[in-house]
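Morning - pyridoxal-5'-phosphate inputs below, output right after.
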Amino acid sequence: MSAETASSRLADIHARIARAASTADRRADDVTLIAVSKTQDAAAIQPLIDAGQRVFGENRVQEAAGKWPELRAAHPDIRLHLVGQLQSNKAADAVALFDAIHSVDRLSLVAALAKAMAESGKRPDCFIQVNIGDEPQKGGVAVADLPALLAEARAAGLPLAGLMAVPPFEVDSAPYFALLAKLAREAGLEALSIGMSDDFEVAVTIGATHVRIGTALFGARA
Ligand SMILES: *Cc1c(COP(=O)(O)O)cnc(C)c1O
């Protein structure tokens, strides 16, 4: 990606976030753009860093551990968010590398994260991922099991920021986003990680505090 492409795509996304925020009487500043750089190499990522982007998302611990330490060395203000499923045996690596984890979805992972945080003293923001469309193949806690998992996460002392979801593909995301927003309100959580390349504007109108955008910034993944 050229420097020009990176800055124009970034400006376009920011403008669309701002327009969506204003229609909902929200501030664009209250929405964090996470540039999802999974599968992208350093050469694809660097132009976005140069254009000023500082928050990035990855879906695999190992891939992120391979490319980010070097990219981040020159820009200590870069923040990394884990947006993909996390195995409990990688919890310590995830806590060491990431500033936020969006995929907390089961008790065993809550326990592994709490232990890794206690041992390292590092406390990345945690989002509980909800399987908002009740899809068997998807990560996330079932809606019905959310209250129990929230209680466990609170008891374990995890720094809970909010809820995250990936709604079913190829149907209107809005009702799923609205349901997640309602669940977050009921849980007293402020952050809402919703919205991807195809639906981030509607997510912003419904209250997204974090949008996770890959394709619209980097182009289609190989
Ligand atoms: C890949 C991914 C994204 C970004 O998706 P795009 O459609 O490329 O914007 C967002 N969230 C999660 C959890 C992802 O895995």
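Note: The CA atoms of residues 109 and 195 lie 24 Å apart.

O.
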